[in-house]
Design a protein that fits this description.
- The chain is of the alpha+beta class and 372 residues long.
- The chain has 2 domains: 176 residues, no CATH class; 162 residues, 3-layer Sandwich (Rieske Iron-sulfur Protein).
- It is 35% helix and 15% strand.
- It contains 7 helices and 13 strands.
- A hairpin with a 5-residue loop joins strand 10 and strand 11.
- Helix 2 packs across helix 5, helix 3 packs parallel to helix 6 and helix 4 runs antiparallel to helix 6.
- The radius of gyration is 33 Å and the shape is elongated.
- It binds FE2/S2 (inorganic) cluster.
C-alpha cells in the first residue's frame, strides 16, 4: 500500500508548531523514513559523557591556540632573508614551516573537533530518503532549518558550555588568523618610496651611483667572478647576477644578490652579423652582439632558462613560451604576451660588463598598476 504524503501546512500554521514537530514534519515531507534514532547519552552527566565533552573541547582549543600562533608568527616572526652561515639564517628558515604547521594544525584540529562532536553527541540516526528534483520551496527551507536546529538541540549543545566556548574560541581565532594573513599584505604601501619602491626596482638598481657589475654564479656565494665579453663564445648564453664592489667580503650581501628573485639575467652573445630589431626607447641597450634580458618570464614568472642558438629563441619550460632574442625578446609562441625586460649593459675601462641602469619597466608578469 502506498503511503499518503502529509498535507503541506501554510506558513502561518508552521508558526504554531514546536521546533520538534516542524523537524518531524520536514522528515515526512522529504519522504524521509527514520529507521533508527538514538540519543548517544540516554543517561545524562556520566563520567564518560564528560570525558567525551572534554575531548571535543580540547580539539577546538587546539584550533584556537594554533590560529593565534599562526597570526603571531605572520606578524612578528623575522621573515627577512639571511644568508646561510649567518646567525639568523635558521630563524629565517623556520618562518614558512612554522606558518604551515600552525595553520595546518588549526584546520586539522577544527576538522577533528567537528567530526568528534558529530560522532559523540549528535543522535545516532539512520534515515532513508527518496530523491527529488528542482529547488526547495518555502516549507522545505523552513523544515530543513528546523531539522538542523533540532539536531543541534538534541545533541545537547546549548547545555555543553565547555564545547560551545571552545568551538567559539577555535572558530573565532581561526577566522582572525585567516583575516590577518589575508589582509597583512595590505598594511605595507608598495609605493611608499615612489620610483625606488620594490615593485619597480630590481637588484640591478644602483643605490648611490655605484657601478653594478655582471657576475657569474660559480656555486660558491663568497666567490666573485665578473664577466667580460671574451668569456662568451658566439651563440652562447650565461646567467648573470648583480655585484657591487662594496659587497666584497660581505658574505651575506653576496649570497643575497644571488638569491634575489628579480636578479637573474640572461647574457646572450648573438652570432656576428645577426639581424636585430631594437625596441623603441631601448635603442643601444645592447653592447655589440651582447644582449641582456631578465630571466623572469613575462607569463607567470618562471625562469626562461633555455636559449636555442640556431634559432635565437629563448624558451620558457613552464608553458613553452618562446621569445625572439633578435627582436628585443618579443614573444613569438606560447601564452606570454610581453617582451622580456631588457637590461642596458656596457663594458667599463677594465673590460668588465656592468649595467648602465636598472630595467626601465617591471620585470616578469603583469600586475595591476603596470603601465607597459
Ligand atoms: Fe613562462 Fe608560463 S611562465 S610560459
Amino acid at each position: 500500500m502506498t503511503q499518503q504524503p502529509p498535507s503541506v501546512p501554510e506558513a502561518a500554521e508552521l508558526d504554531e508548531l514546536s521546533r520538534a514537530d516542524v523537524a518531524r514534519l520536514g522528515s515526512k515531507l522529504d519522504d524521509v523514513e527514520i529507521v533508527q534514532l538514538a540519543d548517544r547519552w540516554p543517561v545524562k552527566g556520566t563520567r564518560a559523557e564528560k570525558r567525551a565533552e572534554r575531548g571535543v573541547a580540547m580539539w577546538f582549543t587546539i584550533c584556537g591556540l594554533s590560529s593565534l600562533a599562526a597570526a603571531g608568527i605572520f606578524v612578528f616572526w623575522p621573515w627577512e632573508y639571511h644568508a646561510p652561515g649567518s646567525t639568523d639564517h635558521w630563524i629565517y628558515q623556520l618562518y614558512t614551516p612554522l606558518l604551515g604547521i600552525t595553520m595546518g594544525l588549526a584546520v586539522l584540529a577544527l576538522g577533528i573537533g567537528t567530526i568528534a562532536y558529530v560522532k559523540k553527541f549528535m543522535p545516532a540516526e539512520i534515515s532513508v530518503q527518496q530523491r527529488h528534483d528542482g529547488p526547495s520551496d518555502e516549507v522545505d527551507r523552513r523544515t530543513f532549518s528546523a531539522l538542523v536546529t533540532e539536531a543541534g538541540a538534541t545533541s545537547g549543545l546549548p547545555r555543553r558550555k565547555m564545547i560551545a566556548r571552545a568551538a567559539g574560541f577555535g572558530a573565532g581565532a581561526l577566522g582572525l588568523g585567516l583575516g590577518v594573513v589575508a589582509l597583512g599584505g595590505f598594511v605595507k604601501n608598495p609605493w611608499a618610496q615612489d620610483n625606488n619602491s620594490a615593485l619597480v626596482t630590481t637588484g640591478w638598481k644602483s643605490i648611490s651611483g655605484e657601478k653594478v657589475y655582471l657576475r657569474r654564479d660559480t656555486g660558491d656565494p663568497k666567490e666573485v667572478v665578473l664577466v667580460r665579453p671574451e668569456d662568451l663564445d658566439a651563440g652562447a648564453m650565461e646567467t648573470v647576477f648583480p655585484y657591487r664592489h662594496w659587497e666584497q667580503g660581505d658574505e651575506e650581501a653576496l649570497a643575497r644578490a644571488l638569491r634575489r628573485s628579480d636578479s637573474p639575467v640572461m647574457l646572450i652573445r648573438l652570432r656576428p652579423g645577426t639581424q636585430v630589431v631594437q625596441r623603441k626607447g631601448q635603442e643601444g641597450f645592447n653592447y655589440g652582439d651582447f644582449w641582456a634580458y631578465s630571466k623572469v618570464c613575462s607569463h607567470l614568472g618562471c625562469p626562461t632558462s633555455l636559449f636555442e642558438q640556431q634559432t635565437n629563441r629563448i624558451l620558457c619550460p613552464c608553458h613553452q613560451s618562446q621569445f625572439d632574442a633578435t627582436h628585443y625578446a618579443k614573444p613569438i609562441f606560447g601564452p606570454a604576451t610581453r617582451a622580456l625586460a631588457q637590461l642596458p649593459i656596457d663594458v667599463d675601462d677594465e673590460g668588465f660588463f656592468y649595467a648602465r641602469h636598472d630595467f626601465i619597466e617591471p620585470i616578469g608578469p603583469a600586475y595591476w598598476e603596470r603601465k607597459s
